[in-house]
């Protein structure tokens, strides 16, 4: 008997994804543990994901849990917009504005949105991303892209 439907649903999704990636990795050269081919790592990750999915699925049968609730549509929309904006804006705008606007969009996903907190987080994340990736790791991304300069 299912006692925690949320866990059963998530476990089934994990197992289905694991099977999908497992079958996809079999079409690649696996190699050996000492000399890994391009399919070895996806195969091992799919095995780990499948084991995780089975363990989550088992929890759904043995522990009590809540019924699934409706998905948070607001969060899905704003997180999707943030990821999409960053993907399309990082080259023309540069890393600083792309991270700043994306983090503001991510902040709108929550129900407790506060403008000052979101702006401070956007500044810290954008400058931190620039410092880490451009200055620290010497990634070839401009801080501000051609549409800004």
TrEMBL record:
<protein>
    <submittedName>
        <fullName>Membrane protein</fullName>
    </submittedName>
</protein>
<feature type="transmembrane region" description="Helical">
    <location>
        <begin position="40"/>
        <end position="63"/>
    </location>
</feature>
<keyword id="KW-0472">Membrane</keyword>
<dbReference type="InterPro" id="IPR009936">
    <property type="entry name" value="DUF1468"/>
</dbReference>
<feature type="transmembrane region" description="Helical">
    <location>
        <begin position="115"/>
        <end position="137"/>
    </location>
</feature>
<feature type="transmembrane region" description="Helical">
    <location>
        <begin position="75"/>
        <end position="95"/>
    </location>
</feature>
<dbReference type="Pfam" id="PF07331">
    <property type="entry name" value="TctB"/>
</dbReference>
<keyword id="KW-1133">Transmembrane helix</keyword>
<keyword id="KW-0812">Transmembrane</keyword>
<feature type="transmembrane region" description="Helical">
    <location>
        <begin position="7"/>
        <end position="28"/>
    </location>
</feature>
<feature type="domain" description="DUF1468">
    <location>
        <begin position="9"/>
        <end position="142"/>
    </location>
</feature>
